[in-house]
TrEMBL record:
Keywords: ATP-binding, Nucleotide-binding, Transport. Residues 10-238 form the ABC transporter domain. InterPro entries: AAA+_ATPase, ABC_AA/LPS_Transport, ABC_transporter-like_ATP-bd, P-loop_NTPase. This is ATP-binding cassette domain-containing protein. It comes from the Bacteria. It comes from Fodinicurvata halophila. GO terms for molecular function: ATP binding.
Length: 239
């Protein structure tokens, strides 16, 4: 696994989540480093969103431990985890349609006054929406709305960015632009992306984790994962 420092930013150790008799996530372990991007893929119901829910604190694991910057966040509430530097973009857009692009970003700021305004400018640049800053979110194209969502997740300057299907519903051009954008964003932070679109995962070409029935089936470089016979049988072969 690519590594930019010896201590992982995130360390997930044998985490499980059970809902009654169903084990949605089954003893999954993974690590994330600053400057690293990784993808989580897997068929519907594989446990991807449940794993994200545990990382951001909207659900607690039944078993296992999650360390973020050496702090045990396993049972911390959502807002405490967010304050520590984990930001998530959900699958369904949750921008305020009636507000402008810049006001949507400003609302997500941790700062006030000039510092907030500076951060809004930086993020507008990153997600390439500077030209749309005074446009109402409702008037954005679908792809631009998704980039605004990414911008909102970036506003608090997270160290770990969790993106749930960032290219859902995008055109091919928008998907390409999202891959370019994420590669730039990745520089200072750690990014984990849940994605169904294999052409997008191929573009990101990063460390990839395959979940299947709650278990970690395979992990490694996307090119290796893609060639793996078991992965092809349970997932890629069906694409
Ligand atoms: N709150 C819940 N209560 C009961 N079962 C749940 C709950 N949340 C998820 N599950 C079940 O856990 C399993 C894993 O679901 P999860 O949404 O994590 O999968 P996923 O890989 O994200 O799927 P998709 O790609 O369709 O989003 C599924 O069988 C799902 O029905």
């Amino acid at each position: 696994m690519p590594e930019t420092s010896s201590t992982p930013l995130l360390s997930v150790d044998s985490v499980s989540k059970r809902f009654g008799g169903l084990t949605a996530v089954d003893t999954v372990s993974l690590k994330a480093w600053s400057g690293q991007m990784q993808c989580i893929i897997g068929p519907n119901g594989a446990g991807k969103s449940t794993l994200f829910n545990m990382l951001c604190g909207s659900e607690s694991p039944t078993e296992g431990t999650i360390l973020f910057q050496d702090i045990d966040i396993t049972r911390l509430p959502l807002h405490r985890i967010a304050r520590l530097g984990i930001s998530r973009k959900f699958q369904v857009p949750s921008v305020f349609d009636e507000l402008t692009v810049e006001d949507n970003l400003d609302l997500a700021s941790k700062e006030h006054g000039a510092a907030a305004a500076r951060r809004v400018d930086e993020v507008l640049e990153t997600v390439q929406l500077s030209g749309q800053r005074t446009v109402k979110a409702s008037e954005l194209a679908h792809g631009q709305k998704q980039w605004l969502e990414i911008g909102i997740a970036l506003m608090p300057v997270p160290q770990l960015l969790l993106l749930d299907e960032p290219t859902a519903g995008m055109t091919r051009d928008e998907t390409q632009k999202t891959a370019d954008l994420l590669k730039e964003v990745q520089a200072g932070i750690s990014t984990i992306v849940i994605e169904h679109d294999m052409s997008f995962v191929r573009k990101l070409n990063c460390h990839t984790i395959v979940l299947h029935q709650g278990k970690l089936l395979k992990e490694g470089a996307f090119s290796d994962v893609e060639q793996d016979q078991t992965v092809r049988e349970v997932y890629l072969g069906k694409q």
